[in-house]
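[Structure tokenization] protein backbone as discrete codes
[Encoding] learned vocabulary of local backbone shapes
[Protein] chain in single-letter code, fold in tokens
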Amino acid sequence: MTENGAVRLQYTSLRDQVLEVVRQAMVSGELRPGDIYSAAALATRLGVSSSPVREALLTLVNQGLMEPVRNRGYRVVAMEEQDLDEIYEMRQLLEVPGTLSAAAKAGPADLERLGDLAGEIERAARAGDVASFLEADRRFHLALLSLAGNRRLLESIANLRDQTRLYGLEKLAESGRLTGAAGEHREILAAIAARDWDALENLMHTHLRHTRADWAAG
């Protein structure tokens, strides 16, 4: 999200695109708990009408990620340390075995597609573009997990990812160290290609530990 509307939004599935942008702004800390945001103000920032923004915000309310503030707008639901610890624990319990199950079904075409997404993550990291980094990272992991063929697992992990807070990524981007985080996706793909499940499990545990440690430090 930017003040000058630099985020490009196509007018197909506009509500879904707005929803994705707002979600990532919440995860990265661009939209902070305690601050109140109106649909009109966010629409101006994104360069779209208020209607799809309002629909997206109501979806986030229904998911428990935002709350309405009467006659003022919407507020990001605050996450306490205990909340973030629980989310991290749930992601370890679900996302690691889920990734292992999905990876066992990955074929050459899947690895090529995931490699393209890893390239997007790397380009965003080099540019210091946290929003694009998060968007590509989300697509990478959910695309990989989708190979398991378990829709409920995919939806559960997607919801947990949306509740994660990664405020420290801005500092990593400013210091030029975001590329290190991006590189972990290539290591994950290398482990899958080698069918090295022990390495993949260790990589995923390490990758998720970052979400509760240095990537989450605000």
Notes: The chain has a mean pLDDT of 89. The first strand starts at residue 36 and ends at 37.
